[in-house]
Structures are given as C-alpha cells and as structure tokens.
Amino acid sequence: MSARTDPQDGARALFANPRLRAGLAVSNAALIIAIAFFFIDDTLTQLIMYAVAVIDAPVTIWVLGRVAETNG
User: Fold this and answer.
1) Distance of CA 52 to the CA centre of its chain
2) pTM above 0.85, yes or no
3) What is the DSSP string of the chain?
4) Domains contained in the chain, number
5) Second label for 67, Cα 20 to 30 Å away, from 2, 18, 41, 43?
6) Chain centroid to CA 22: how far?
7) Which residues of 28-43 are buried (b: 16+ CB within 10 A; e: fewer)?
8) How many CB atoms lie within 10 A of CB 64?
9) Domain for residue 27, yes or no?
10) CA 69/CA 15 separation, integer angstroms
11) For the chain, how long is the longest CA-to-CA vector?
12) Would you say residue 3 lies in a domain?
C-alpha cells in the first residue's frame, strides 16, 4: 500500500521559499498599482488603491510565511 500524502504539504514546501513569497507579494502590489494608475480616474480611489498595495505586500509575505510554518 502506498502512503497517502497530504496536499497541504506541497503548499508548505512551496511557500517555504522566501523568494517566492516576496515575488508573489510584489507582483500583487504591482498589479494593484498598475490598475490604479492606468484604469482609475478618481484621485482619491487611486490613493486608496496605492495604500492597499503598500499594505498588501508585507501582509502577503507574512501570511505565506505562516502557511509555510504551519504543522497541520
């Protein structure tokens, strides 16, 4: 019989790489900034989206780091 593997183990191993976590966070923030800059006309909405992007990057890195550390 083969041992069953937990699919979450693959996610933990994937997110254990800090470069991947940072890359995902930066790409998400860049996407939010690009949408705000190119598609949103209202200045206040743009500023709010920029603030969300700045907050999103470190929070995403932290959350993905927690996923990598989780033991089950």
Assistant:
1) 12
2) no
3) -PPP--HHHHHHHHHT-HHHHHHHHHHHHHHHHHHHHHH---HHHHHHHHHHHHHHHHHHHHHHHHHHH---
4) 1
5) 2
6) 8
7) ebeebbeebeeeeeee
8) 21
9) yes
10) 9
11) 61
12) no
Residue recorded with tokens 């700045």 = 54
Give me the residue label for tokens 């860049």.
Answer: 30
Tracing tokens 């909405």 back to the chain, one arrives at 45
Residue 36 within a domain: yes
Alpha-carbon distance of 5 to 71, in angstroms, equals 14
Q: How far apart are CA 3 and CA 15, in angstroms?
A: 23
7 in any annotated domain:
no
What pLDDT shows up at residue 1?
A: 45
For the stretch 15-58, pLDDT in tens is 889 999 999 999 999 999 999 999 999 999 999 999 999 999 99
